[in-house]
Each structure stands twice: as C-alpha cells, then as structure tokens.
Amino acid sequence: MALAAPVVAPAAPLPKPSAEAIPLEQLMAGEFALQAGQLADAAQWSLEAARLAQDDVLLAERATRIAMLANDDVRAAQALKLWQKRSPDSLSLQAATASLALREGRLRKARQELLQLLAAPDPRAWRYALVALAGGRDPEAVAKVLGQLVDAGAIPDQLQAWQEFGRLSLRLDAPQVAARIVDQMVERFPDEPRVAVLRAGQLHQAGETARAREMLVAAEPRAAADPEVRGMLAVAYEGMGDFAEAARVMALGPQDVQTYGIRASLLARAEDSATLEGLYRELSDSQGARPDPASRMLLGRIAEFLERPAEAVDWYRGVPGGPLRAEARIRIAAALYEQGQVEQAYSEAHALQNDAASDDDARRNAYLLEGELRQRGGDPAAEIEALSRGLAAYPDDPALLYARALAWERQDRIDRTEADLRKVLVAEPENVAALNALGYTLADRTQRYQEALELIDRARTAEPDNAAIVDSYGWVLYRLGRNEEALVELRRAWGLLKDPEIGAHVGEVLWVMGRRDEAMRYFEDARRLDPDNRSLVRALEKLQVVLPPAAPAAAQPAAAGPER
Q1: DSSP state of 220
Q2: Nearest to 300 by CA among 274, 320, 280
Q3: Which CATH number goes with the domain that contains 474?
Q4: Is residue 508 included in any domain, yes or no?
Q5: Are 192 and 226 contacting, i.e. CB atoms less than 8 angstroms apart?
Q6: 2-6, 53-57, 387-391, 454-458: which has the minimum mean pLDDT?
Q7: 268-296 burial string, b = 16+ CB within 10 Å, else e?
Q8: Cα–Cα dist 162/116, whole Å
Q9: What range defines the domain where residue 469 resides?
Q10: What is the pLDDT of residues 518-549, one digit of tens each?
Q11: Residue 463 lies in a domain
C-alpha cells in the first residue's frame, strides 16, 4: 500500500536575535562543517554558538537538531537543556525531548512527553507528536510507545490524526499496533471509506488478504462519485500487487486523459492485453477524427504497451508542434527501437540532438535516450560515447554527467564514476542525488568509508527522510563495522520504501550478525520485488545463500531501486 509521507510539524514562531548576540565565528564554523558533511564538528560548533548566545531560542533548537542528525545524543541533550530554559512551553521542544528519549531508549520518558504533548490544547499538537515518533531510531521501540499511546486513549478524536498514526504503524511493520489503531478507527468512524482503505492495508500486511479485499469492496460504492476515494482504492489494490483490480476501480466514474493513462499503466503492469486493447479502442473512439495532443501521446503509449510500435509511431507523429512535440519525438525514437528499427531509432535521436530549433532540454534528453537505448542494446562503449557527445554539446550538464557516472559504475570504472559525480558537485555543491550516489559508490565499491560517510551526511542534512539516503547511510555504517547502528538505519529505509536493494542490504547485515532466519525473509521479499536486482544477486553470491524456490505470487510493482 502506498503511504503518505510523515506529516511535518509547523514551525513555531521564534524570536529574532539581535545582531550583537550572534556568535558569528562559531556559527560560520558550524555551517562550514555542516556543508562538508562533518556532522560531529557541526554539532560541536552549533552547541558552542547556542551557549554563547544566551537568550537565543533559534540557535538552541538548531544545535539540538544538528546533534540529533549527527547521532550525538550527548550534545543533543545539552542543547535541549539550553532550549528548555529559553522556551519551556514550545511544542517543538516537547517533540524533540520525546524523540531524544526514544533514541536513548528511555521509553517511559518518551511516553510521558508524548502524552503531555497530545493533551495540549493546541490543535496542532498531535502533528508534533507524530514527528517526534517518526524521529525515533529503533522501529520496535517506536512501535511499543505508539501502542501505549493508543491504549491510553491519547490520540485525538480526529480522522486525519488517526489516519497518520495508522500509516506510521504500517511503515513500522508493527501489525499488532496497526490492528489496534484500525479497530478503533472503525469504531469511531464506521462509515468513512478512508478507514476501510487503511484497514485493508493493515489486514494485507498481516497476511489476511481476503479480508482486506472485503473491506475494499465495501468502500467501492463511494468511488464513482468521489475521485479521492477512487484513487485511494486503486492505490490499495496496487499495493497488493493486483493491478487489474486497481484499473477496474479507476474505470468507475467520469474519465479523462489522466484516468485513462493510470488505467493503461495498471493494465500494462497486470499484463492484461485484452482489457488494454478495449481501453485503446474506447479512448480512440472517444476522441473523434482529430484527437488532442495529450490523447495522441497517451494512445501512443498504450500502443507501446500493446507491443504495437508501428501504431505508436503513427500516433506520436500526429502530435503537432507545441509543448508535447519534443516528448513525442523522443517517444518516436523509443518506439522505433522496440519495432526493431534500431538504426532509424538512432537517426531520430540524432535528428533531435542536432535540431537547433528545439529547446535545450529536448536536445539534452535525446542524448540521454540514446545512452539508454545503447545500454539496452548491450553496447556500453556506445552508451558512453553518446553521453560524451551530449556533454560536448552541453558541457558539465548535471543530468548527462550523472547518467555517464552510472554507466561507468556498471562497467566497474569507479575512478571515472567518481570523476563525473565530482564534476556535478563542482557546479552544484549541494546536489543531493550526486552526493548520495558518490557516497554510496565509495562505501560500496572502495574502502574510503570515512569520505563516503561525509558525503552521505551532506545528503542527509538536506533530506533526512529520503529512503535512498537513509539506505546509503546504513550501508556505510555496515561497511564501517557498526552493524547494530546499520541495521536500525536500514530497517528505517525499508519502512520508508519497500525496495529490493534496501531489502538485500537489510538481509546481508542480518546474515552477518547471525540472524539468518530474519535475513532469509528480507532476501525473499527482495526477490519478490525484483529477482534480478544487482545488489540482491551480489549479496546472495557473496554470502553463498541459496533461497528456496519462489512461491507463485501476484505480479509485483516494478522496482527500479532507490535513486543514487
């Protein structure tokens, strides 16, 4: 089941410090350390700045958050005391106090802080409590405290609050807590279809898929008249791997190009060519003699799904000049490739690359497409050559450099991978994708672990809840031999995104720690998502693990791996 991102607590109003009170030397040192990914130093300097600015709430809060990001609980506690003295009634302070207690394993203290927070009269208080729970490191500890809050009746009687805490329980893989939350939601909001969808997710996670389907069917009558409910039901079926049912639900109610597109994608994933053929005819017949450009694009994509590249090319060629024309030309090249007209596909890509009348994004994308097609054709040298020509036309373009870096990595040319990613970072020092990709590559393919950690920490500073970055962080901790810490982070990444690469990483760490039954479950989950995932294959070979034969299962969502 696709889950919403954690709710972000609104920022509390903070007083502005006077210019004379700002300790500039310490602040600048902390900022430089933070930008360099040296989080331990950043935590030290930020705490020193907070101490010197004796009445500054903002600096105390910042010092607390940087120390927590650095996993420096000692300095986090010291900064928290400064913050408490300066703003004792802040909701943000209470949330940070609860998070720190969770991280330190002081669950009773965390529960007390959260109970006080949830009892606050401010209607935003539950959001802060949710953020505090999401800030805990150990999913089992967070789930335990969340269960205690539910049993204490602390969750406010608001549907959105119950939804968000329920989603958190699902991300934590805490089926018992999720069951208790959903049971109460059904009792409190018996006629709310959103509750039925959440309960279905909980039942499916617990292995009761038949009951989950019953809940979704019961909510269907509202779907035709309520697009939001329709979308939620489709997402629920998609999470179960039942793309055909998701497509059927999306067919309820009025249709437009967007809903047709979603249905087509779902039916393609379900490999239901017969129903997709019917949708193709329905959409084509509904457009009249001159379909609009968006419909032509969609009909082209459906023709591709149906493996009719010649028809796809015809549809794309019919897209007139305008905002979709460049995309149509890209799709023409891809469809020709699928049709087996490889040289014609490359000619189309080259024509767009050399078309001075097209905008730079379109021409750059034509080089990226050619690189992708060369890769699919098993010609790594030609892939590099295409991307290099793109870089000759668009020197130091981040997307082209990033693509070439990944191509070099697939060829085990780690020196060139690093060179291209560093070029991206010269132009864009805070490019999160490049920071994470370079950090992960150094952690995975070299022994430069400390350097990798600093790069990943820079990415974490920008996006602390990005699943790919959390996975990279856990992986470098594992490579540093910090297995217990690594496992906590990798499990958190798995909770954020069910991805085969992340599952393979969790399985490897568990296996090395001797927890082989648990490891096998993660390896099998990763295989269900993508049996050919490179990280999974490498882990199984490295550890000499033989998985039992895969049981027949419904089709799973395509998994491309977390973006590096």
Answers
A1: G
A2: 280
A3: 1.25.40.10
A4: yes
A5: no
A6: 2-6
A7: bbbebeebbeebbeebeeeeeeebebbbb
A8: 18
A9: 457-564
A10: 999 999 999 999 999 999 999 999 999 999 88
A11: yes
